[in-house]
Design goal:
By secondary structure, the protein is an alpha/beta fold. The protein is about 45% helix and about 10% strand. The protein contains four helices and six strands. The longest helix has about 60 residues.
Amino acid sequence: MASRTNDRRARIEEMRRAEQARERRGRIITIAISGVVVAGLVGFGVFVLNKESEEKDQQVAEAKAPVTGEKSWDAKKLGRNHVAKAVTYPMKPPVGGDHNQVWMNCNGDVYTEPVPDVNAVHSLEHGAVWVTYNDKAPAGEVSKLADKVKKTPYSMMSPVKDQAGAIMISAWGKQVTVDSASDKRVSQFFTKYVQGPQTPEPGAACTNGLGGK
């Protein structure tokens, strides 16, 4: 009887040791997996931070670099009076000057019909970038530019049939002609001049103006 009791206790003890061994292995595996996951998350976080840092550095570099082929006008000499009449501007599209008291909506607005210069100029005063194109611009390039504008607050787009270049981009006192939507100067111009240092009224509204959106 004593022998059977001792055998049962031995088996129970052996089972207990086996269970403890399984628990230890489970904890080791869990810790190992957790370590791999944490290391992966840390590595991914470092990658994301590095990528964001690189993108920010690129944006800073673009903002500082001159835009090749850019035309500039003295912002201080461009009129800023509100007028209720038509204005004849010395450049097409205009990059500044006296303008209507109502601005065009420029919160990523894409207009398929020409907009009044006097309202568009007011948007430029608020720090908007204005993308314009004529009939010579390929439809595919116009579509790509429209996609970019739609994603960019303080920008707008419209056709200007009698402008010199097929695709032109304007800000207050600044203008450049580009060949396509993929021209690196497009991104550079946006980075540099959307609410850029040339803006006479930074932070002024680009909504609740003319345009309905």
